[in-house]
Amino acid sequence: MAKNNQRTRKIQVTDTLTLGANAVVRKKSGNDYAVLLPAVATQTLTTTKAVLASESGTRFILSAAAAFVTTLPEPIEGMEYYFYIGATHPTTTHTIKTTSSANIIVGNISTPEDAAGSVSVVTDADTVSFVANKAKHGDFAHVWSDGTNWYLHGMCAVQDAMTSTQAS
Fold this sequence. Notes:
The strands form three sheets. A seven-stranded mixed β-sheet has the order 3-5-7-12-13-9-10, with no helix packed on it. Strands 4-6-8-11-14 form a five-stranded mixed β-sheet, with no helix packed on it. The chain has a two-stranded antiparallel sheet with strand order 1-2. It has no helices and 14 strands. By secondary structure, it is mainly β.
């Protein structure tokens, strides 16, 4: 009988396992390795919400016809959130706003609707809006913070389906 020289190693985590920023977890499948990504938190929103710092990385699905406001927390370096229009398109405008009307959202909103693609530059905004009767399933806004600003990358199927405004 041949001796198996391979060792089987199992790690069982009962509470929390913290890995460094560059850590990669792989699972061997046959002669190949698959990278295992951490689970991504997803939350469906149908009403007003103040997003928590602890929810960084969450994908929020905005899924209600009636308008509601989602408020970002104070910026902390490395925090990020994703907001997507769900299957229920808004018939009134959904907004994502800063907590203190600080006009600290900067970035771009783009659309492939016209042949050249349109880009709207967002400078010193306080609010990002998914516009009523224009925002479509899959339109999204991704915001990331350096601790001072919220950097926006937005994409919408219909031109002007996503806009930004500055607090007065």
